[in-house]
Amino acid sequence: MNNLGIYIHIPFCEKKCNYCDFYSFSAGASLKQRYVLAILREIGRWGDYLNRPADSLYLGGGTPSVLTTDNLCSIYTAVQKYFCTPKSAAIEVNPGDRVDFAALPFNRISVGVQSFNDNELTALGRRHKSKQAKQTLLAAKKHIKDVSADLMLGIPYQTLNSLKENLKILTDLGVTHISAYMLKREKGTPFYQSDLPFADERQTADLYLFVCDFLKSFGFERYEISNFAKKGFYSVHNLKYWTGEDYLGLGPAAHSKLSNRRFYYEKDIEGYINAPVEITEGEAGDEDEKIMLLLRTNIGYDFSGNKKLQPFLKRLQDEGLTTTVGTRTVLTDRGALLSNEIITQILIKK
Ligand code: SF4
Fold first, then answer.
1. What is the number of structural domains in the chain?
2. CATH number at residue 333
3. pLDDT at 3
4. pTM, two decimal places
5. What residue's CA is closest to ligand 1, atom 7?
6. Residue 169: half-sphere exposure toward Cβ, Cα within 13 Å
């Protein structure tokens, strides 16, 4: 059995960003404390029940960095006690939050930079400024080697030049990993109805391909559609999602996969604190799912045994949308842009 990954959702944010549809909200100290206690209880309960080691821990959100250092350390210590010391322990940090990096037991920091351009940050509704993002990255780098930054593509007012400037700052600061996500206007968010000048599909595609080229020239590998890393700095935890390994998600809205079972917890913090209810999501691990997940990565998928699919695969390759690594089909940068369409067609035709 593979090692387990543990995800812990911290659903607190001081301010909601204009594009965000994650389960997160602002909360006072007492709710935060009750939630941390519930998480510690659940770590113990699941640890006793599963009785297997975990090699990765990921604290995401929301904003884990709004919790106190003591709270963060107690969560880490509980995971250590019930699942052993994780090889990779990552935490998401919001720029500008007071984080004592020297005291944190985590060995990977992921900073929600999004942009170093203050106009773009204001459009996104982020509560930090560019200067704070730089300070947070510098402070993290002082203590931790593996520092990742999130960037967003397709922000109102974003240009190729502002993006280039962002990438240059990140590479100069020596980050080891960059996640570059394309902005989506999700229903129910202020951006959904907003008349800000959003980038269209073609502009966003240009931004994405620019990121791929720029980061490649700085020694980053695109190991998943939106994720780029220096050699040896792939996200241990996120790779579990794409390669079909097991993960346990704790907290409201957190998803789990344990062997062939998928389930999640409702978006209800009080319900989670009082008595968490698992909601089954169906079976995991069939071939379609493996194709969908692995084609997102640079591992790709081996279709060599499927004769029916060969003419379509050849067409994709002739059009420069896929390439082969040994017997595996892997999406090129241009293919990654069209991943949904390509994967859908493969699943229909296979
Ligand atoms: S900080 Fe992250 S989780 Fe919180 S509102 Fe902004 S995008 Fe959403």
1. 2
2. 1.10.10
3. 86
4. 0.96
5. 20
6. 22
